[in-house]
Amino acid sequence: MPKPMLFSPFQIRDTVFPNRCTVSPMCQYTAQDGIANTWHLVHLGGFVNGGFGAVMIEATAVLPEGRITHGDLGIWSDDHAAALKPMVNFMKDNGALAGIQLGHAGRKASMQRPWRGNGPLGEADFALGDTPWPINGASALPVDEGWLMPQEMSAADIAELTEAFVTAAVRADELGCDFVELHGAHGYLLQSFLSPASNTRSDEYGGDRTGRMRLAIELAEAVRAVWPAGKPLFFRVSSVDGFPGGWELEDSVVLARELKAVGVDVIDCSSGGNQGRTKVNAGRTLPKGYQLDYAAHIRVEAGIATQGVGMILDGPQAEEALQSGQADLIAIGRQALFDPFWVRHQAYAMGVNDYDDWPEQYGWWLTRREPSIQALSK
Ligand SMILES: Cc1cc2nc3c(=O)[nH]c(=O)nc-3n(C[C@H](O)[C@H](O)[C@H](O)COP(=O)(O)O)c2cc1C
């Protein structure tokens, strides 16, 4: 029986992904002043042990004001980068590629940690030390009523932002990261420039789609210029805003073509987030693989590799997405929180049970236990 695609390598530029399973970036809201700690190491290390071929470090702020919450990771100084080093080392020493998502939260910066409300900061947060900071964004439009008012970014702010992304990418390379992703989704800064719902600028970074895409493309080009030619560059999009008059799938296709032209290799196809959870997603239940059709469409229409994500729950579902050409890589988010050993467990369930692939500290024992397990199931 041929090995499932899910467990087969995939090469982008000079970089070989050992399998098609990546860990989707997931903020832990657990950093102190942007500095990573042992929680992040254990959290990400578990996925490495669990067989993911690539692990992406959560949205990491390129500037302090670009953090979503007080608990976000940052990479705006050498000290911040140094704190990420043990994680990158652990990934690479144990057979996984190390990735990092670089981001700026824009008008969604300075908000509550999810489990404290997921909205604008309030008195209860202030009492816990989470006080707001001034925020900036595409336009002077808050996420919703009661949220902080962002200041519209000036040309100088945009230049500073570009420099911050470039410096962050250089730091990520020096850290040893194998791939980097620009966070262009979920209503954070880059996505808020893209969407007509959040960008009402009258300068060259606003107006028609070409203007609204300008920042994303310029940033990708600037990062590509310093990011090594052999290493992949990912860009995460909100494939659609999900409401009338917002960013649409065909806009994502056009953006993906432009990003490809400046050296982006993979479009990571997410969706939503522009208006915050209050307006769009409240109460919605999500079907399995709800974003895979976006990944399939962008992959074909823009001729670029895609990463599929969203309610991908088991190996056969992921395999089907790969076999049918919906995506080239499969990102697992919450199901990896549920089961950090998702990859190894899916391989076992799909009959690819080679404990030689496991860390030897575990595999040696499990190989010898296997006959007993098999006997029990007879
Ligand atoms: C705890 C948590 C934190 C997240 N943080 C990020 C993030 O840092 N960057 C990002 O692009 N998406 C983030 N997401 C979204 C996930 O990467 C993923 O796209 C989403 O959860 C859908 O995939 P899933 O159904 O496999 O969880 C986060 C999701 C969760 C559950």
Helix content: 25-40%
How large is the count of helical segments?
Answer: 13
Please write the string of helix (H) and strand (E) elements.
Answer: EEEHEEHEHEEHEHHEHEHHEHEHHH
Mean pLDDT: 96
CATH homologous superfamily designation: Aldolase class I
Spatial extent as radius of gyration: 20 Å
The residue ranges in which pLDDT falls below 50 over 5 or more consecutive positions are none
List of distinct ligands in this structure:
flavin mononucleotide
What structural class is derived from the secondary structure elements? alpha/beta
Write the SSE topology.
Blueprint: E1 10-12, E2 15-17, E3 21-23, H1 38-49, E4 54-61, E5 73-74, H2 78-93, E6 97-103, H3 123-127, E7 136-137, E8 151-152, H4 155-175, E9 179-184, H5 189-194, H6 209-226, E10 233-238, H7 249-261, E11 266-270, H8 276-279, H9 292-302, E12 305-309, H10 315-323, E13 329-332, H11 334-338, H12 342-349, H13 360-376
Bound molecules: flavin mononucleotide.
Notes on the structure:
The longest helix is centred in the middle third of the chain and has 21 residues, at 155-175. The radius of gyration is 20 Å and the shape is globular. It is 38% helix and 15% strand. Strands 3-4-6-9-10-11-12-13 form an eight-stranded parallel beta barrel, surrounded by seven helices. A two-stranded antiparallel ribbon has the order 1-2. It is α/β, with parallel strands linked by helices and 378 residues long. The two termini are 23 Å apart. The protein has a single domain, classed as TIM Barrel (Alpha-Beta Barrel), CATH 3.20.20. The model has no long low-confidence stretch (mean pLDDT 96). Flavin mononucleotide is lined by residues 24-27, 58-59, 101, 183, 185-186, 236, 270, 309-312, 332-335.
